[in-house]
C-alpha cells in the first residue's frame, strides 16, 4: 500500500502522528486535532507527488504534519482560520459586497384579518 493510500485509511489524528512518526503532546492534539488535520490536508492538496518515491512522499507528508502541528502550537485556531465558518467570520476580512438583506421592523407587520 502506498503512503497516500495508507493516510487515506487512517481514522484518528493519533494514527496520523504514529504512522508518520511525528511527536506530539496528547493534550494539544486533544484540543486541536481537527484544525491540525485540516491544515495538513491543505498542505497535501497543494503538493505535487508526481514521480516521487515512496520515501520522498513519506518524508513530505511527515514534514507537512509536523508543520501543521507547529502552526497551531505557535498560533491558535482563530488566527489560522482553516475552517470555512471561521474564515467567513473574520473581522479583518472585507465585508462581502452585494445587496444586504432587507430589514423589516416588527411594528410594520400586521395580521391578515
UniProtKB/TrEMBL annotation:
What name does the UniProt record give this protein? Nitrogenase-stabilizing/protective protein NifW
Q: How does it assemble?
A: Homotrimer; associates with NifD.
Pfam family for this entry, one: NifW
Instruction: Give the protein's function.
Output: May protect the nitrogenase Fe-Mo protein from oxidative damage.
- The encoding gene: nifW
Among InterPro entries, the record links this protein to: NifW
Q: Does the keyword Glycoprotein apply?
A: no
Q: Which family does it belong to?
A: Belongs to the NifW family.
User: What organism is this sequence from?
Assistant: Xanthobacter agilis
Which keywords does the record carry?
Nitrogen fixation
